[in-house]
Design a protein that fits this description.
This protein has 6 helices and 15 strands. The chain is of the alpha/beta class. The longest helix is centred in the first third of the chain and has 14 residues. The chain is globular. The two termini are 25 Å apart. The protein binds oxo(2-sulfanylphenyl)acetic acid (23J) and manganese (II) ion.
Length: 263
Protein backbone atom coordinates (compact mmCIF):
# COMPACT_ATOMS: atom_id res chain seq x y z
CA UNK A 1 0.00 0.00 0.00
CA UNK A 2 1.40 3.37 -1.03
CA UNK A 3 1.67 5.50 2.11
CA UNK A 4 1.20 8.80 0.30
CA UNK A 5 -2.02 7.55 -1.27
CA UNK A 6 -3.17 6.18 2.10
CA UNK A 7 -2.70 9.57 3.77
CA UNK A 8 -4.59 11.33 0.95
CA UNK A 9 -7.43 8.90 1.49
CA UNK A 10 -7.45 9.70 5.21
CA UNK A 11 -7.50 13.42 4.38
CA UNK A 12 -10.43 12.88 2.00
CA UNK A 13 -12.32 10.80 4.60
CA UNK A 14 -11.78 13.49 7.24
CA UNK A 15 -13.07 16.09 4.83
CA UNK A 16 -16.09 13.95 3.91
CA UNK A 17 -16.79 13.09 7.56
CA UNK A 18 -16.50 9.32 7.07
CA UNK A 19 -13.65 9.47 9.58
CA UNK A 20 -14.54 11.70 12.51
CA UNK A 21 -12.54 13.24 15.34
CA UNK A 22 -13.67 12.45 18.91
CA UNK A 23 -12.43 14.72 21.71
CA UNK A 24 -11.40 12.62 24.73
CA UNK A 25 -10.54 15.67 26.86
CA UNK A 26 -12.26 17.24 29.89
CA UNK A 27 -12.52 21.05 30.16
CA UNK A 28 -9.44 22.42 31.97
CA UNK A 29 -9.94 25.27 34.43
CA UNK A 30 -10.35 26.31 38.07
CA UNK A 31 -13.22 23.82 38.46
CA UNK A 32 -11.17 20.82 37.25
CA UNK A 33 -11.17 18.19 40.04
CA UNK A 34 -7.69 17.28 41.33
CA UNK A 35 -6.65 14.10 43.15
CA UNK A 36 -6.91 14.18 46.98
CA UNK A 37 -4.19 11.89 48.36
CA UNK A 38 -4.39 11.26 52.11
CA UNK A 39 -1.94 13.77 53.70
CA UNK A 40 -0.29 10.77 55.42
CA UNK A 41 0.91 9.54 51.98
CA UNK A 42 2.17 12.87 50.64
CA UNK A 43 1.44 16.38 49.42
CA UNK A 44 -1.28 17.24 46.91
CA UNK A 45 -1.32 19.11 43.60
CA UNK A 46 -2.96 22.57 43.51
CA UNK A 47 -6.14 23.47 41.67
CA UNK A 48 -5.81 25.33 38.37
CA UNK A 49 -5.47 29.11 38.69
CA UNK A 50 -5.91 31.54 35.80
CA UNK A 51 -4.30 34.97 36.28
CA UNK A 52 -4.97 37.79 33.86
CA UNK A 53 -2.00 39.70 32.41
CA UNK A 54 -4.15 42.08 30.37
CA UNK A 55 -7.60 42.19 28.83
CA UNK A 56 -7.60 45.05 26.25
CA UNK A 57 -6.88 47.48 29.08
CA UNK A 58 -4.09 49.68 30.43
CA UNK A 59 -2.01 46.52 31.02
CA UNK A 60 -2.18 45.72 27.30
CA UNK A 61 -4.54 47.85 25.24
CA UNK A 62 -5.13 45.61 22.20
CA UNK A 63 -4.66 42.12 23.61
CA UNK A 64 -5.81 39.58 26.19
CA UNK A 65 -3.60 36.95 27.82
CA UNK A 66 -3.29 34.99 31.04
CA UNK A 67 -0.71 33.07 32.98
CA UNK A 68 -1.57 29.76 34.60
CA UNK A 69 -0.81 27.93 37.79
CA UNK A 70 -1.10 24.32 36.71
CA UNK A 71 0.03 20.98 38.12
CA UNK A 72 1.50 18.51 35.65
CA UNK A 73 -1.06 15.88 36.75
CA UNK A 74 -4.23 17.92 36.28
CA UNK A 75 -7.36 17.21 34.29
CA UNK A 76 -7.06 14.97 31.24
CA UNK A 77 -3.33 14.27 31.49
CA UNK A 78 -0.40 12.12 30.47
CA UNK A 79 1.82 10.23 32.94
CA UNK A 80 5.46 9.89 31.85
CA UNK A 81 7.59 6.98 33.16
CA UNK A 82 9.68 9.29 35.38
CA UNK A 83 6.49 10.07 37.38
CA UNK A 84 7.00 6.85 39.36
CA UNK A 85 10.09 5.70 41.25
CA UNK A 86 10.07 2.48 39.22
CA UNK A 87 10.66 4.49 36.02
CA UNK A 88 13.05 7.11 37.34
CA UNK A 89 16.26 5.85 35.67
CA UNK A 90 14.87 4.72 32.31
CA UNK A 91 15.91 6.29 28.98
CA UNK A 92 13.65 8.94 27.38
CA UNK A 93 11.35 8.83 30.41
CA UNK A 94 10.36 12.54 30.58
CA UNK A 95 7.71 14.50 28.66
CA UNK A 96 10.35 16.27 26.52
CA UNK A 97 12.18 13.09 25.54
CA UNK A 98 9.45 10.54 24.80
CA UNK A 99 9.77 9.52 21.13
CA UNK A 100 6.88 11.22 19.25
CA UNK A 101 6.06 7.99 17.42
CA UNK A 102 4.36 6.95 20.68
CA UNK A 103 1.89 9.85 20.40
CA UNK A 104 -0.09 8.24 17.56
CA UNK A 105 -1.26 4.68 18.16
CA UNK A 106 -4.17 2.23 17.81
CA UNK A 107 -6.73 2.03 20.60
CA UNK A 108 -8.42 -0.87 22.38
CA UNK A 109 -11.43 0.25 24.43
CA UNK A 110 -12.70 -2.22 27.01
CA UNK A 111 -16.26 -1.46 28.08
CA UNK A 112 -16.67 -1.92 31.85
CA UNK A 113 -19.57 0.52 32.21
CA UNK A 114 -22.08 -2.13 33.29
CA UNK A 115 -19.77 -3.56 35.98
CA UNK A 116 -18.87 -0.08 37.24
CA UNK A 117 -22.52 1.00 37.46
CA UNK A 118 -23.02 -1.93 39.86
CA UNK A 119 -19.72 -1.45 41.77
CA UNK A 120 -17.72 1.81 41.78
CA UNK A 121 -14.68 -0.12 43.12
CA UNK A 122 -14.74 -2.47 40.10
CA UNK A 123 -11.29 -3.68 38.97
CA UNK A 124 -10.70 -4.89 35.43
CA UNK A 125 -8.68 -8.13 35.62
CA UNK A 126 -6.46 -10.03 33.17
CA UNK A 127 -9.33 -12.49 32.80
CA UNK A 128 -11.64 -9.62 31.83
CA UNK A 129 -9.14 -8.45 29.22
CA UNK A 130 -8.79 -11.98 27.79
CA UNK A 131 -12.60 -12.31 27.57
CA UNK A 132 -12.66 -8.99 25.68
CA UNK A 133 -9.93 -10.22 23.30
CA UNK A 134 -11.91 -13.39 22.59
CA UNK A 135 -14.74 -11.18 21.33
CA UNK A 136 -12.92 -8.28 19.69
CA UNK A 137 -9.46 -9.56 18.76
CA UNK A 138 -5.98 -9.57 20.28
CA UNK A 139 -4.42 -6.48 21.82
CA UNK A 140 -1.55 -5.62 19.49
CA UNK A 141 1.97 -4.44 20.39
CA UNK A 142 2.29 -0.64 20.31
CA UNK A 143 -1.40 -0.01 21.08
CA UNK A 144 -3.14 1.66 24.03
CA UNK A 145 -5.74 0.02 26.27
CA UNK A 146 -8.49 2.26 27.64
CA UNK A 147 -10.91 1.20 30.37
CA UNK A 148 -14.33 2.58 29.50
CA UNK A 149 -16.34 3.07 32.72
CA UNK A 150 -18.59 6.05 31.87
CA UNK A 151 -17.08 7.55 35.06
CA UNK A 152 -16.38 10.74 33.05
CA UNK A 153 -20.04 11.71 33.48
CA UNK A 154 -19.09 12.49 37.11
CA UNK A 155 -16.11 14.66 36.12
CA UNK A 156 -18.05 17.95 36.53
CA UNK A 157 -18.01 17.62 40.33
CA UNK A 158 -15.00 16.72 42.52
CA UNK A 159 -17.38 15.19 45.07
CA UNK A 160 -18.91 12.57 42.75
CA UNK A 161 -15.75 12.14 40.65
CA UNK A 162 -13.42 11.35 43.58
CA UNK A 163 -16.30 9.57 45.38
CA UNK A 164 -14.56 9.40 48.77
CA UNK A 165 -15.98 8.30 52.12
CA UNK A 166 -14.35 7.49 55.47
CA UNK A 167 -12.71 4.46 53.81
CA UNK A 168 -11.14 6.52 51.04
CA UNK A 169 -11.95 7.06 47.35
CA UNK A 170 -14.13 4.63 45.37
CA UNK A 171 -13.50 4.62 41.63
CA UNK A 172 -12.73 1.91 39.07
CA UNK A 173 -9.34 0.89 37.72
CA UNK A 174 -7.10 -2.03 36.82
CA UNK A 175 -6.03 -4.99 38.92
CA UNK A 176 -2.33 -5.83 39.14
CA UNK A 177 -2.70 -8.85 36.85
CA UNK A 178 -4.54 -6.72 34.27
CA UNK A 179 -1.53 -4.41 33.94
CA UNK A 180 0.89 -7.37 33.92
CA UNK A 181 -1.15 -9.00 31.17
CA UNK A 182 -1.42 -5.98 28.86
CA UNK A 183 2.33 -5.31 29.29
CA UNK A 184 2.96 -8.91 28.19
CA UNK A 185 1.08 -7.99 24.98
CA UNK A 186 3.47 -5.06 24.35
CA UNK A 187 1.07 -2.13 24.89
CA UNK A 188 2.50 1.39 25.16
CA UNK A 189 -0.15 2.83 27.45
CA UNK A 190 -3.08 2.42 29.83
CA UNK A 191 -5.91 4.96 30.04
CA UNK A 192 -8.71 5.54 32.55
CA UNK A 193 -11.66 7.90 33.03
CA UNK A 194 -10.76 8.30 36.73
CA UNK A 195 -8.76 11.16 38.25
CA UNK A 196 -5.62 8.97 37.98
CA UNK A 197 -4.73 5.80 36.07
CA UNK A 198 -5.25 3.65 39.17
CA UNK A 199 -8.46 2.73 40.98
CA UNK A 200 -9.58 4.69 44.06
CA UNK A 201 -8.39 1.75 46.16
CA UNK A 202 -5.09 1.54 44.19
CA UNK A 203 -3.06 2.27 47.32
CA UNK A 204 -4.28 -0.99 48.89
CA UNK A 205 -3.27 -3.21 45.93
CA UNK A 206 0.03 -5.10 45.59
CA UNK A 207 2.18 -3.35 44.48
CA UNK A 208 0.42 -0.11 45.52
CA UNK A 209 -0.85 1.80 42.45
CA UNK A 210 -0.16 -1.05 39.97
CA UNK A 211 -0.92 1.02 36.84
CA UNK A 212 1.69 3.58 37.91
CA UNK A 213 4.19 1.11 39.36
CA UNK A 214 4.19 -1.44 36.52
CA UNK A 215 3.47 0.68 33.42
CA UNK A 216 6.20 3.17 34.29
CA UNK A 217 8.65 0.41 35.28
CA UNK A 218 8.19 -0.85 31.70
CA UNK A 219 8.83 2.70 30.33
CA UNK A 220 5.18 2.88 29.27
CA UNK A 221 2.63 5.67 29.65
CA UNK A 222 -0.63 6.55 31.35
CA UNK A 223 -3.64 8.74 30.58
CA UNK A 224 -6.12 9.87 33.23
CA UNK A 225 -9.47 11.73 33.31
CA UNK A 226 -10.33 10.64 29.78
CA UNK A 227 -13.82 11.52 28.47
CA UNK A 228 -16.22 10.29 25.79
CA UNK A 229 -14.86 6.75 25.68
CA UNK A 230 -18.49 5.71 25.07
CA UNK A 231 -18.10 7.28 21.59
CA UNK A 232 -15.27 4.91 20.63
CA UNK A 233 -15.46 1.47 19.00
CA UNK A 234 -13.84 -1.43 20.89
CA UNK A 235 -11.17 -1.57 18.18
CA UNK A 236 -10.28 0.48 15.12
CA UNK A 237 -9.82 4.00 16.54
CA UNK A 238 -6.46 5.77 16.36
CA UNK A 239 -5.34 7.90 19.31
CA UNK A 240 -3.48 11.20 18.94
CA UNK A 241 -2.15 12.44 22.27
CA UNK A 242 1.01 14.26 23.31
CA UNK A 243 2.18 15.88 26.54
CA UNK A 244 3.60 19.41 26.43
CA UNK A 245 7.36 19.31 25.89
CA UNK A 246 8.07 20.29 29.51
CA UNK A 247 11.79 19.86 30.17
CA UNK A 248 12.18 16.95 32.62
CA UNK A 249 8.36 16.85 32.96
CA UNK A 250 6.69 13.98 34.83
CA UNK A 251 3.37 14.50 33.07
CA UNK A 252 1.23 17.09 31.37
CA UNK A 253 -2.32 18.11 30.63
CA UNK A 254 -3.16 17.06 27.07
CA UNK A 255 -5.73 17.39 24.35
CA UNK A 256 -6.48 13.76 23.50
CA UNK A 257 -8.18 13.02 20.18
CA UNK A 258 -9.27 9.83 18.43
CA UNK A 259 -9.94 9.18 14.76
CA UNK A 260 -12.92 6.86 14.39
CA UNK A 261 -14.84 5.47 11.43
CA UNK A 262 -18.18 7.26 11.28
CA UNK A 263 -21.25 5.01 11.58
C1 LIG B 1 0.71 10.75 42.77
C2 LIG B 1 0.50 9.72 43.65
C3 LIG B 1 -0.52 8.82 43.44
C4 LIG B 1 -1.31 8.96 42.32
C5 LIG B 1 -1.10 10.00 41.39
C6 LIG B 1 -0.09 10.89 41.65
C7 LIG B 1 -1.93 10.13 40.17
O1 LIG B 1 -2.98 9.58 40.05
C8 LIG B 1 -1.44 10.87 38.99
O2 LIG B 1 -2.08 11.82 38.53
O3 LIG B 1 -0.44 10.44 38.41
S1 LIG B 1 -2.60 7.82 42.05
MN1 LIG C 1 -0.85 11.51 36.63
Amino acid sequence: MDAGRLLSEVAAALSAGTIKVVDLTAPLGPDTPVIALPPAIGKNTPKVEVHSISHYDSDGPFWAWNWLKLGEHTGTHFDAPVHWITGKDLPDNTTDRIPPKNFVAPLNVIDCSREVAADPDFLLTAEGVRAWEAKHGAIEPGSWVFMRSDWYHRNGSAETFLNADANGPHSPGPSTDCIEYILSKGVIGWGSEGVGTDAGKGATLQPPFPAHNLMHKANRYGLASLCNLDQLPPKGAILFVAPLKFVNGTGSPVRALALVPSA
